[in-house]
């Protein structure tokens, strides 16, 4: 089903994301003695510390109970109500420096690739780790910049935000055009994935829960690595080692780019451009995918993301979702991910939480 980020769907994202397993909300719940929030405590007529369907106002029974009853017991307890109240506040937070309060550990400029072409830090990555990381999920985040610019440092605040939610973030640099052309960029993405697979357990995370994401050109690389398995196979891995994929506003058909960019980044030949396009590699056994893009995206980029979504559905992919982020442009999605309560952030957290639970689906 194609999802649009409207008020109700945003609340649904909050349900899955900000659940009892979230350390941030666990801390809030424990600090308040698991009492109902003062705003709603008067509704608890029988004093059992929960709000039943009968105790909720009629409108809330269908709007709130159905979306925030995390344990399906037909009541809302203190934690579930805090999730709801936090979601109502979330959209009003403003961007800026993410205050981590000592709860995030950063490790910068770790080398994952070396040699000619990797000068100036292009073969290095940064880590953002929950301070008490223990078998937590991992998110490899590929920066944007048209495959010709950009740097992992742009992801600093976003990395800190995800780490606060108990997710380790790996932010690699990669080689850029025009110094290199396809397939160098995607080969580096695969190398960064291999480094993560080999080393992330030493940093307290679980390599069986590696997710990958990126915005713009990072979204293009994310989808290409997810669908074209050749690059992971060269690293001794498979696409099934990707627990889930979240491409954000990526190009899915690079044959439609202009000739100047084609010559700099890929190769101005139909064969190469087709190989470099994620749309070429659509298959039903790819990892779970959440496609995000802005409602104010350029028409062509929006069309390409809808097209690959439709193509994946058509071939029978069982776990593909598309979500349009409201009041966003191509360039405002990534900085807003550092805001607590941002719909894009919540969608990603929900997806990661859902697909971190239990064993990965057999593909």
Describe the overall structure.
There is one protein chain. This protein is of the alpha/beta class and 363 residues long. The chain folds into 2 domains: 2-90, Orthogonal Bundle (Recoverin, domain 1); 104-356, Alpha/Beta hydrolase fold, catalytic domain (Rossmann fold, 3-Layer(aba) Sandwich). Helices cover 37% and strands 17% of the residues. It has 14 helices and 11 strands. It has helices at 7-17, 23-31, 38-41, 58-68, 78-90, 156-164, 184-199, 217-227, 230-234, 259-265, 270-275, 299-314, 333-336, 343-356; strands at residues 2-4, 51-52, 75-76, 104-111, 124-130, 136-142, 168-172, 205-215, 244-248, 289-294, 320-325. The strands form 2 sheets. A 9-stranded mixed β-sheet has the order 1-11-10-9-8-6-7-5-4, sandwiched between helices. Strands 2-3 form a two-stranded antiparallel ribbon. Strand 6, helix 6 (156-164) and strand 7 form a beta-alpha-beta unit. Helix 1 crosses helix 5 (78-90). The protein is globular, with a radius of gyration of 21 Å. The two termini are 21 Å apart. 44% of the residues are buried. Mean pLDDT is 85; it is low at 1-33 and 89-94.
Poorly predicted residue ranges: 1-33, 89-94
Total count of domains: 2
Look up the CATH topology of the largest domain.
Rossmann fold
Output the structural class. alpha/beta
> What average pLDDT do the residues reach?
85
Q: Element order, helices and strands?
A: EHHHEHEHEEEHEHEHHEHHEHEHH
**What is the name of the CATH class of the largest domain?**
Alpha Beta
Strand content: 15-25%
Q: What is the CA-based Rg, rounded?
A: 21 Å
The total of helices stands at: 14
